[in-house]
Amino acid sequence: MDSDYGVAKELSDLQKQRSLYQPELPPCLQGTTVRVEFGDATTPADPAGAHVISRAFPHTYGQPLAHFLRATAKVPDAQIITEHPSVRVGVVFCGRQSPGGHNVIWGLHAAIKSHNPNSTLLGFLGGTDGLFAQKTLEITDEVLSTYKNQGGYDLLGRTQDQIRTTEQVNAAMSACQNLKLDGLVILGGITSNTDAAQLAETFAESKCSTKVVGVPVTFYGDLRNQFVETNVGFDTICKVNSQLISNVCTDALSAEKYYYFIRLMGRKASHVALECTLQSHPNMVILGEEVAASKLTLFDITKQICDAVQARAEQDKNHGVILIPEGLVESIPELYALLQEIHGLHGRGVSIENISAHLSPWASALFEFLPPFIRKQLLLHPESDDSAQLSQIETEKLLAQLVETEMSKRLKEGTYKGKKFNAICHFFGYQARGSLPSKFDCDYAYVLGHICYHILAAGLNGYMATATNLKNPVNKWRCGAAPITSMMTVKRWSRGPSATTIGKPAVHFASIDLKGKAYELFRNNASKFLMDDIYRNPGPLQFEGPGADAKALTLCAEDQDYMGRIKLLQEYLDKVRSIVKPGCSQEILKAALSAMSSVTDVLTVMSSSSTFVGQSTL
Amino acid sequence: MDSDYGVAKELSDLQKQRSLYQPELPPCLQGTTVRVEFGDATTPADPAGAHVISRAFPHTYGQPLAHFLRATAKVPDAQIITEHPSVRVGVVFCGRQSPGGHNVIWGLHAAIKSHNPNSTLLGFLGGTDGLFAQKTLEITDEVLSTYKNQGGYDLLGRTQDQIRTTEQVNAAMSACQNLKLDGLVILGGITSNTDAAQLAETFAESKCSTKVVGVPVTFYGDLRNQFVETNVGFDTICKVNSQLISNVCTDALSAEKYYYFIRLMGRKASHVALECTLQSHPNMVILGEEVAASKLTLFDITKQICDAVQARAEQDKNHGVILIPEGLVESIPELYALLQEIHGLHGRGVSIENISAHLSPWASALFEFLPPFIRKQLLLHPESDDSAQLSQIETEKLLAQLVETEMSKRLKEGTYKGKKFNAICHFFGYQARGSLPSKFDCDYAYVLGHICYHILAAGLNGYMATATNLKNPVNKWRCGAAPITSMMTVKRWSRGPSATTIGKPAVHFASIDLKGKAYELFRNNASKFLMDDIYRNPGPLQFEGPGADAKALTLCAEDQDYMGRIKLLQEYLDKVRSIVKPGCSQEILKAALSAMSSVTDVLTVMSSSSTFVGQSTL
User: Fold this and answer.
1) Beta-carbon separation of A250 and B538 below 8 A
2) Most buried among A147, A367, A412, B453, using CB within 10 Å?
3) How far apart are CA A177 and CA A544, in angstroms?
4) What's the whole-model pTM score?
5) Cβ separation of B540 and A243 shorter than 8 Å?
6) How far apart are CA B164 and CA B184, in angstroms?
7) Residues in B touching A534 (Cβ below 8 Å)
8) Is A220:A325 a contact under the CB 8 Å cutoff?
9) Residue in A with minimal Cα distance to B429
10) What span, in angstroms and rounded, lies between the C-alpha atoms of A513 and A520?
11) A158 to chain B, closest Cα gap in Å
């Protein structure tokens, strides 16, 4: 229904009020004069992949960081972009819908128009399909009026989340050339931003003048690295889900007879589950990263839950709330192996009915052990990125059933003396994705939209818009841009026989850092959460009053301002250079040499270390 | 965990702010002087049951309505209750937890203490089990501090929702006598209030001095009649669910490829589903009352949905949102019949494994036709009131599967030419029940709590607290009390072989009135909802700003103020009496006789009419 995109919507009272909310801009983006300062050439966090990445992206690898500063900032090397010729920019929704996406477009539009009213912003209708087919809608203030600060992607719609095949890349290039676009802004997660980097490289190589910019819009929260602290949508999704989890906790405590197993959307990583745990304090969460790190089997996890149920029953507590990230199923080793076999058979064209007959004896035994509903779900075709259809696999029901069986057994054997175990299962999936965005997401998305314009005005290609120092108020945020290639890692492990991504650079997928501060915060409280029912209810998403300005707890727990600290380092180096100029005393030179030699020794050892701990430990 | 009831909770910022919210009182309840005016003796709406009810409740049937008025009200017959000796009152959570329950206790406590600080309010710990076991917690301001305006029932907990067997009734009476209670306040829905009426009758008969008061607290919204406009919790549940439904609608419109089947909690009636439909405008809702009225089979409903999918596909729309009330399964004739057979076999002690073998050939054929997951769910033991375990039966999945099969068939046959049909199922159940109560529910519950005290102060037994004229601001609300017996009807139909309630009076269960204004509002818009995607997003529950004071649309659509109109009628009758006094002219007497004879003729015909249309058409 192309004709329905971008039509004015009838808004409820609350939506109307939200549509009038004007996000603040950090000082550096206020007014029409913005300075750009370029930092050093960038390198990916994992040095082992640098060579592969540089070869795959000869035109766009190693570009410098860009910092956007206010016009009055006293930075000698920064350039002021004074000319703002009219530009034509296209924007496309690529990843799954994430609350705040509309505000990126609004911010971009506001920045474009404030610098030159003759500039044009075109939205591609129907996501990537619209890009390939060159279907556009000109974004105007009128078009935006009922979409400002609203959820969903219904302004433009979205279809597939990839621009990857030669055919797709060529279609995208034709669109950019035919529409005479100076810039193409791509909103999405890891997959879409990896595609954006590839598109930028291809455009540069083909001398296509369109610059490509990526924006981290994905509520999964897994596009995190030195430069990107969080993703648009993550805050909202966690708040909406935390509200619901808290409600279930209150319910559990009122009736005191059910264990609730709640599966949360969030793909492979457990970021959403961890954040919700910190916000609402359920009794347990089975983090995929912990399971993978400890190689816990389905039986280990079942036993862990059963032991918890038993320990609680000994304190006369016969209720509880357990969170299950949807990605858990891929973290459990034997289920992962089974899924890989199934996906391999899919790849070889074996029909669903025949797959079970073609499984290896080991996988077949596991498959037959599983309840029928989960067998059916495991047999579903994998997604475009070879992962299982996580939203369709009811891991929460599988675990609830296994726990129930085990508790009945313990009850019969007399090892468990509590009440009959009762489970209720919930999937908190699509009900959060279309939510009105939180104030944080409204602001963050709007600011990123503005930054996209400045990236294009600076003539940069293959960059991602970044705003950092986010745990502080908006007026402390730092705005910048980093080459997408600097966020890449190279996959060195197989993801099953149908995987085609091994050895290919991709934007780094951040799982929960088990050495990070957010995880530590959880671990320090996990036993209290488990036993003491210290449920916390942040309440429904608010836009005024207490809670309206709350930020994600995982965001606030981590060290931040990597961009600021990189700049600080540069200042130290400049200072050394200015003190130790030719002509300085022997003593000063000696001291400097000794100190620098020690620093470089330490850093050489650290950076060549084979234990790459992941970009999330910043 | 008795020791955990009533402990101070750690509140989030929003919860803290809510705990400071002070609900307003209607003028009649302000201050410490309240007048009581008694109306005429009451009669149940269905005259056919009056005789049965009066025989079952000889001591409590036919009591007058009570209106609470401000002390300065110019009503000659009203009494001012001037003496407020110290009283001992007990309060117990009976039904399922419903947002606002805590505020009834708070309101009751505030009223009791403001009239006599020496009075005592005892909360029974663990619901009815606590009542039977005489486990209490004295309610104080300190105990209440972290529960004011908060969701759940965790202040006191709840267990079974019935006080019905002789053993239970005797235990309740012993508790009241041993604890020297002047009053017992019971919070709950239809079942609990029916039990409250029975308890009041038994106490009166046994000369037990404890007066029993019921409060309509049930988010199902099915305890509605002339005197009760809505129930505590309904507003909150509908708002929380409408938010989520709207989010899913936005999601559907963004990706344009899924049909969402959402099952909503709400027991047998479809009130929650209708209210949510009016709030968020999903494409379809399958109301149980419509299905029952038209005797639609599973295949009729499937066809209805398939035809809608097809019609939408012809307009290039391949997405949609369909609401399924959890009670639907009992409204579909053949499924209901099957459930009755199953429950009958349960009643005869047939084990779950053997039930399918004992079904009649017809039921067996249907049973075998159904997918395995639903068979398993249908076999679950019925609830205490003989209804199926609705929360466990995934009707949404059954319908999605049937529709998918039919659409594939139509696709093959070429009658359907749209895209492949994709369904995603959701159950919006326990995630709403524990929510922070909406402002309306906070106010309504608090006011009802106050009224409970005045009922007891007036010495009334077997009454329900009522506040009416609710679509107007709190200062226009009318406060009163009606005998629970006047809200009763007598069940004349079997609910399966295990039903024991036939012929017994019970508080009238209100299903959606298909001749009512709320339903009419829906019907007038149903085709637009279906085809035009005029989704509306009321947003998350707000406590400040737009939407915070919104009220249920079904509440606002209906004619209200039955209590006010009853009073108006009394005024007319009084006026007639005062004009047509002995000594008036022949003409006046003649005119009065003629008019009154015509009025009484009409009313006689109408009230003897065998078509009792239900108490919900008011």
Assistant:
1) no
2) B453
3) 45
4) 0.89
5) yes
6) 15
7) 10
8) no
9) A426
10) 9
11) 6
In this structure, are residues B444 and A548 in contact, taking their beta carbons and an 8 Å threshold? no
Phi, psi values for residue A502, rounded to 5°:
-65, 135
- DSSP for B68-105 reads EEETT---TTPEE-------EEEEEE-SS--TTHHHHH
Q: Residue A123 is encoded by which pair of tokens? A: 């939205």
- Which chain B positions have a beta carbon within 8 Å of A240's beta carbon? 247, 540
Scan for tokens 């990263």, then name that residue.
Answer: A289
Measured CA to CA, the distance from residue A395 to residue A409 in angstroms comes to: 21
Q: What is the 3-state secondary structure (H, E, C) of B372-405?
A: HHHHHHHCCCCCCCCCCCHHHCCHHHHHHHHHHH
Chain B CB contacts of A432 below 8 Å: 244, 247
Cβ of B240 within 8 Å of Cβ of A540? The answer is yes
Closest CA to A196 of A228, A164, A234: A164
**pLDDT, tens digit, 9 for 90 and up, residues B259-278:** 999 999 988 899 999 999 99
Rg (CA), chain B: 26
pLDDT digits over A341-365, tens only?
999 999 899 999 999 999 999 999 9
* 3-state DSSP assignment of residue A434: coil
Answer for the pair A333, A300: CB distance below 8 angstroms, yes or no: no
SS3 content of chain A, % helix, strand, coil (to 5): 45, 15, 40
Q: How far is the C-alpha of B342 from the C-alpha of B346, rounded, in Å? A: 6
Task: Render A224-261 in DSSP notation, one character per residue.
Answer: -SSS----BTHHHHHHHHHHHHHHHHHHHHHH---EEE
Helix, strand counts (H, E) of chain A: 23, 16
| Enclosing H/E stretch for B136 | strand B136-138
Buried b (16+ CB within 10 A) or exposed e, B69-86: bbeeeeeeebeebeebee
Q: Do A547 and B434 touch (CB under 8 A)?
A: no
- Distance between CA A470 and CA A231 in Å, rounded? 11
Closest CA to A399 of A334, A331, A306: A306
Q: Identify which of B227, B102, B200 has the alpha carbon closest to the alpha carbon of residue B480.
A: B227
Are residues A90 and A196 in contact, defined by beta-carbon separation less than 8 angstroms? no
Res B603: pLDDT: 84
Longest pairwise C-alpha distance within chain A: 87
Question: Are B543 and A545 contacting, i.e. CB atoms less than 8 angstroms apart?
Answer: yes
Say if CB B99 and CB A246 are below 8 A apart.
no
Radius of gyration over every alpha carbon of chain A, rounded to an integer in angstroms: 26
Q: Is A38 helix (H, G, I), strand (E, B) or coil?
A: strand
Q: In what order do the strands lie in the sheet with B259-264?
A: B284-285, B320-325, B259-264, B423-428
Q: Residues of B399-418 as b/e, b for ≥16 C-beta within 10 angstroms?
A: bbbbbbebbeebeeeeebeb
Q: Chunked in runs of 10, what are the mean pLDDT values of chain A (618 residues)?
A: 68 94 95 85 81 94 92 78 92 94 98 96 96 97 96 92 92 97 97 96 97 97 94 97 96 91 93 97 97 94 97 95 95 92 91 92 93 91 79 93 96 93 92 94 98 97 96 94 95 54 85 93 95 94 92 86 77 86 85 86 72 40
Interface predicted TM-score (ipTM) of this complex, two decimals: 0.85
Closest by CA to B385, choosing from B95, B92, B116, is B95
Q: Where are the beta strands (DSSP E) in B286-343?
A: 320-325
**Beta-carbon contacts of residue B544 (< 8 Å; ≥ 6 apart):** A542, A544, A545
Give pLDDT < 50 ranges for chain B.
1-3, 495-499, 610-618
Rounded (10°) CA dihedral B335, B336, B340, B345: 20
Chain B positions in Cβ-Cβ contact with residue A373 (cut-off 8 Å):
373
HEC string for B154-210: CCCCCCCCCCCCHHHHHHHHHHHHHCCCCEEEEEECHHHHHHHHHHHHHHHHCCCCC
